[in-house]
């Protein structure tokens, strides 16, 4: 089903005449016109974007009794090469939101029970710690577009959701308060809609985030995506990570007959697909590093030529609290997609935001609401900072490096995870989103470094090995401490010391 019509009750959106346009560009605030215009509306929340975050949020707030107007640039099924793996922690949040049927057999979603890690011909299997959960709880992998369309359909079944195709260009601002948005509808007419709260979920290429945050977007690498057909993974229902050179290669199922392959290429430039450079790179550099069971299917996929690429982005959350508006999803916070944690963070944020808004019957006091929702930025940290830090740190550790200390850290990480017991159980519980505890992440990360030093000291230390061990510790510190600094040391490890942690709902 492709949703391309306006759904729900009548709303009082108005077209803007050309004479009233003041020429503000994309992502800018538009000060409210001096001429008084009709602002009466029964909309409680405007949501910009209907991707994973926007569609899930629309359904969630509508189930809470809010009237929601969702404006999405394109309501056709998306076709992306990321956002295809939902960790078990994210699936639990999906259940909590009542959306678990959007990631089941109806979209040919596959259960994922853990990861297989490959390095230099050796492999180790890491299984999610799911013993205390029901048999349905596991990771899920699927076509991203199918998942999003199911959630859009689910939201559209609610009478208090208006789902409309349109491109939002501007936030309407009056006296420092966001009152709504200006957008162009499917017919190209310029419209405006008002609500007490506007939530921007317009994705990684957001043109509105600069109005609501101070973003520092980094682009560490690119993913090159292929689909392997009718092949069996060495470890069924597991994601596969090859610690390749120069960087990781991923495989995971996205349907009962398809396996996604993502090849990471560091930097912002990739070989050209058009002139055959990419196919040659995949055949000569990547293919020799792939497990034998997947080699033939990989080569067939390369020959078929449906090669896609996308820039990976990372951005710590750095909000500028603004009355009447809030950022969510990739427009707010991104991390390297190596660990598949983005949707888990977004769904966790939605559960938290729902719970914070639940006591409020009236959202019209924008300054009071803004002050109250500052607690959101601290309360989200256990989940978001754990997943964000792990993604950034693992990517740097898993990449090949000419630095001997980094090489030792990579070897130590594979060796530590291969030990089993708490050494594999602990890290994979962090990765899965089932144990969102930043301190545990910090301890495991340095346990890997200490394990690496121990390897260097055995069977006997030498001055060279001692020096390399010291450099390994310094290298580990240089990886994780900048990421922690970006997340915020106080919010990450000592959230109870942040005043906003204790904000109470406004009383009317």
- What are the segments in which pLDDT stays under 50 over at least 5 consecutive residues? 1-27, 32-38
> How many helical stretches?
14
In percent, how helical is the residue content? 25-40%
**How does the helix and strand content classify structurally?**
alpha/beta
Beta-strand content estimate:
15-25%
**Care to count the β-strands?**
19
Quote the distance from N terminus to C terminus. Answer: 43 Å
User: How would a textbook summarize the main sheet?
Assistant: 9 strands, mixed
Summed over residues and divided by their number, the pLDDT gives a mean of 91
Principal-axes shape call: globular
Backbone CA Rg: 24 Å
Task: Write a structural description.
This protein is of the alpha/beta class and 508 residues long. Helix content is 36%, strand content 21%. It has 14 helices and 19 strands. It has helices at residues 52-63, 88-97, 144-156, 209-212, 277-286, 292-304, 342-357, 366-379, 381-398, 404-418, 422-431, 438-457, 463-487, 489-493; strands spanning 14-15, 29-31, 45-48, 68-72, 85-86, 110-112, 114-119, 122-127, 139-141, 161-174, 177-185, 190-194, 197-200, 218-229, 239-242, 249-253, 258-266, 308-314, 325-327. The strands form three sheets. Strands 1, 2, 3, 4, 10, 11, 12, 13 and 19 form a nine-stranded mixed β-sheet that branches. A seven-stranded mixed β-sheet has the order 8-7-15-16-17-14-18, sandwiched between helices. Strands 5-9-6 form a three-stranded antiparallel β-sheet. Helix 1 runs parallel beside helix 7 and helix 10 (404-418) packs across helix 12 (438-457). The longest helix is centred in the C-terminal third of the chain and has 25 residues, at 463-487. The radius of gyration is 24 Å and the shape is globular. Mean pLDDT is 91; it is low at 1-27 and 32-38.
